[in-house]
Target: Plant-type L-asparaginase
Amino acid sequence: MKYGIIIHGGAWDIPDNFVDNHLDGINNALKLGYSLLEDNNNAIDIAEKVVVLLENDPTFDAGKGSFLNALGKVEMDAIIATDDYKIGSVAALNNYSNPIKIARAIYDFDGAVMLVGEGAKIFAEQLGFQQCKVEDLLVGRELERYLKIKKDATFVPKDAFRRKTRGTVGAVVLDKKGRMAVAVSTGGTPKKPPGRVGDTPLFGAGAYIEKDKLGVAATGYGEDLIKALISKRVLDFFDRGLSPLESTEQAISFLSKNVQGLGGVIALGKKGVGLAFNTPRMAFGVQTDEIDSFIGINQKDKEELSKQL
Ligand code: ASP
Model:
């Protein structure tokens, strides 16, 4: 493969009435990403722009549409990284419309890999990023969900993956000059404890990338994805000679067997594309110089795409 992009919109039990929104959101992001690729843009700029579009789409649990934590606040995590081991990551960030832009600013700053909470806010303010109001990120249904599960003492964040809900966004890009980038953004899990950091901003867990190999982005119940070091694990299988598809499948099988985790991964590099998930659904889209635009959400869509991989 010379160039391409793969996107995910969360691995969860996405409800039927949200399927079209997910497919539309992924389709819009894929169109944007692929047209930027064809216009010879840089992988990192493409990954950032695609994730900004998905953060602005209230369908997904990232930016606008983020879940509320146990205190009814929005705390978001994001990461952006390239295949030269440059990383920018942000965690437990309140009230910014596009956390991925702040992750990108940390990437460009180069004086830290990861900033959290208050420190991230100070950094963002210094660069002129404006905080938004929680209402700007809050979609009515999330307030309703929060009020409902707040009263439910038996609800734990992992339940969200078993009950009908939705998730994080991520993209992996290989550009025409052979540069690779990965970007992921999330509002985390519903009713998470304040200060909880998931897999997303952790290099090796929520995302991983190595030159001339693969870029990987994960989604799912973050606590389990961290235990499995899921994104790096995909590369471990790839290094043993497996294809990108086999590497993602083996990593998800490890997640299921060893930590009883729930989630999905997408991967892309010169050797091709891979994706796997053990949740009922994961919204995804892929397009490369060898694969026509393909959008899917069910396991059978993944099987269909796998025939081309
Ligand atoms: N992995 C994210 C987290 O646990 C959630 C998701 O992928 O939807 O924060």
